[in-house]
Amino acid sequence: MLAEVSETGRALRRSELDALRELGERAADAGHGWRGLVGLYLGETRRVWSTLPGITGPAWGTRADAARTGEAVLAAVDAAVAALGEGHEHAQRLAVRREEAERREFVDDLLYGRSDLGRLAERAERFGLRLARTHAVAVAEGERAYDDVHPHVRRVERELIGRFGERDVLLATKDGRLVCIAASSERAVLDAFTAYVRGALGERAGARRVAIGREHSGAGGVVRSYEEALAALKLADRLDLPGPVLHATELLVFPVLLRDRAAMADLVRTVLGPLTGSRGGAGPLLETLHAYAAAGYVNAEAARRLKISVRTLSYRLARITTLTGYDPADPLHRYTLETAAMGARLLGWPEQPL
């Protein structure tokens, strides 16, 4: 092709450029890097340069036209390399999109427990996970939804890979949350992930809350740990838990409380139902019970949290005893009131009727 350009001075034809684009795609699919490909074509150009007829002699004019011949050849080389690059980049973009689609499909299948377990384990190895091991899942929730192109997500991923490498760790986004799956032997990964997404990187997009599921083995264990982390986030919202980092192991009592929903509703209705007869409804007195328990049943601290006087707190506690028949000063009554108050939060009472 270069010999013909050298003889005639013509530009490359569209069919030749299309063929070069196809060659670029095939080279990318075969795993050849762009630097090596450019080096190959420029090296071949240099090798044949002295043999081109328009360079070594006046093939299409006087010898004075040799410089213009060289320019025509270089223009052809430039066009050829550009076409080759277009094909190579196109193939790479397709490969990246295909890889992202496969990764997204794998994450969906893994976290929802779909697909054949053997096939899932095969695919997991490609993404750096060995599902035969024990894993735990951390889920971060931000003020705004996370997605794959979120800059904070990319920076967290770079920091984790830079510090720990790609050793049995997978970072992905799911339903607007950032998910980190790590082997139980790599617990430091989850600790670093929690620190990074909480704002240790100095970014304003830090996560509002992070929940960590328990460690479980196998592909089903990843699903279970993920579901525990999601349940912890929901409980935190429902109960207004103060901690920014939640561990499913510390919240096991709540699923137990909700296991028999009818019994819990009966407890709330029986113990706290009379509070609805109070002026202002059950809300203020229920809030008093929550603050009293959170303060370790210390009057001064509970009053400070409620921003009321100790005298007002004492009045409210006496009112609770009068209406319910349960005295917060009595250990057994206190436990019953606290359990019922927690159940009220879990069931959304009194806003939601029982």
TrEMBL record:
Superkingdom of the source species: Bacteria
The PucR C-terminal helix-turn-helix domain, residue ranges: 285-340
Pfam families: GGDEF_2 (PF17853), HTH_30 (PF13556)
Family annotation (Gene3D superfamilies): PucR C-terminal helix-turn-helix domain
Location of the CdaR GGDEF-like domain: 113-235
Family named by the database record: Belongs to the CdaR family.
Name of the molecule in the record: PucR family transcriptional regulator
Organism from which the protein derives: Streptomyces gamaensis
